[in-house]
Predict the structure of MOSC domain-containing protein.
Amino acid sequence: MSDHPRVIGVSLARGHHFSKQPALEIRLLTGLGVAGDAHMGETVKHRSRVAKDPTQPNLRQVHLIQSELFDELAARGFNVQPGDMGENIATRGIDLLRLPEAARLEIGGEAIVEITGLRNPCVQIDRFQQGLMQAVLDRDADGALIRKAGVMAVVIRGGDIRVGDPIRMRLPEGPARPLKPV
């Protein structure tokens, strides 16, 4: 990918909606997520997860998606812009899907998020644009499912994030653990 990974979009939604509204900036709060976003909190906020066990830790405080996916989807006839797929941060120049669990991203001048796992796409994607669910799923050479709808993270250190902010990656020590859905 690019030599200069950066933020190309930031979004949030106060209510539980599939898409999030683009913003000029978002504020990450340590241990909580995006200030003012429906998924902010120490425990799960995703409605289906709350129904199962509202005391689970929130491993989905921040949703990041690589904007290169938007290019791929456009080539297949879909129109997807930052925020449309419910992500808080759209990136360019970093292959989020290949990051190991516990990789940290330093975003802008202050914020640090730690990658917890893959976003598991759900049927709401097809309600947004018919056929999009299948378009964000793929298979590798061995037939294993590839989920391309972004990654989830927790906030290690808060800060404000704006379009154009640089992203620096820090890999965890020890053996890399591949991302799994969270």
